[in-house]
Task: structure prediction
Amino acid sequence: MPVSRRSFVSSLGLGGAGLLVAPGGGLGARGREAELLERIAGTAPHAQHGLIRLDSNENPSGPSARALEALRGMLGEACRYPDANEPALVAAIAAHHGVTPQHVLLGAGSGEILRLCVEALTSTTRHLVTASPTFEPPGEFARTLGRRVASVPVDAQLRLDVDGMAAASAEAGLVFFCNPNNPTGTVHDAATVRDFVARIRRSSPDTTVLVDEAYHEYVEDPAYATAVPLAVDDPRVIVSRTFSKVFGMAGLRCGYAIAHPDTVRRLQPWRLGAGVNVLALAAATASVNDAAHVRAQQEENRRAKALTRAFFEQAGYTVGASHTNFLMIDLRRDPQPFRVACRANGVAVGRPFPPLDTWLRVSIGTTDEMRRATAVFRRLLA
Result:
C-alpha cells in the first residue's frame, strides 16, 4: 500500500522516530541527516520557521513513495546489521548499469567513495589533482592525510580546465574530475572526458581518474554521457554516483562506485564495514530503477531552475550554464552581505566558493519555493 511522506513518519510513533534520529548514532550522527525524516513529517525546525533551504543542493521533494514504502518495510530489520541486505542493492545497481556485481562498491553516500579513493590511491609521493573550485572533500581528505594537492582553476567558462588538469597529473595518484562540476554547474561532453582519460593514461599510466557523477540525472546536454563504460574496462577509471540528489535521499547516506573488478577489490579494504544502514539500503534498492520518480524530479527541477534563471538574467546578472540542481550567479560584488540578508529574510543560499569571489550559488528548490525566494531576492537586490 502506498505511503505518504507524512504518514510514513507518523506511523513510526515517537519512539520509532526517536530511534532513527537519536543523538550519537544512526541518522542523528551527521547533523543534517536527522532533518530528513523531520522534514518529511513537516516538523523540522527549518520548516517551522519557514526557512527556504537553497544552500546544499538537496532535492526538497525527498525520497519517492516507493522508497518510503521500502523504508517502512525494513524497520523490523533495524536491529540487524546491514550486511545481508547489501547484495540486493548491489545487484540492482549492477543490473541498472548493465555490469556485474563485481563492478559495484557501496558507500555511505558518494562521500565515502571519494574518501576511500583518496586514502587508497594517493600517498606522500603520489598527489591528488583537483579543480578550484570543485567539490571540496577529496582535497580536504588529502590534506588531512598530509598528501600534496594540485588545484587547477576552472576556465573562463567555469568548466574544469582539462588541459591544466592533464598537465598537473604527471605522477599523480588520483585525479578528481567532477562532471557536472559542483559548484559551477558546468559539464564536459563524452568525447572530452574520453580524450582526457586517454591523455592521462598515456602521460601517467599509473594515475587513476575518479569521475564524480553526482548530478548525472540532471544533465540535458545531448553530447554528455556517463563514464561508466570507461570504468568497466579500465582499472584506472572510477565513477562515483549518489542517491542524495535526484533520488532525494541526502540524509540517508547511500552512494556507490562503478569500477573494474580489480579496482573494486583494491578499494574494498578501505571501506567502512557495514557503513550503509538497512533503511538506506532498502530505499536505494527501491529507487534505483524508479524511472517515473526520476522523470518527475527532472521536470520539477527544469521548471524551477528556468524560473530562477529568468529572474536573475532579467535583473541584469550573469548566470552560469547549469546541468545540475543549482545555479551560479555573478553578483559583481562580495555576495556575503546578500547571503546574510537572505538568511534574515528566510532564505538560505550557498556558502563562498573561492576564487569565484563575486559568485553566488543558489540551489533549486520546488517551483513554489523559488517563486517565494525570488521575491526575497528582488527586494534585497533592489
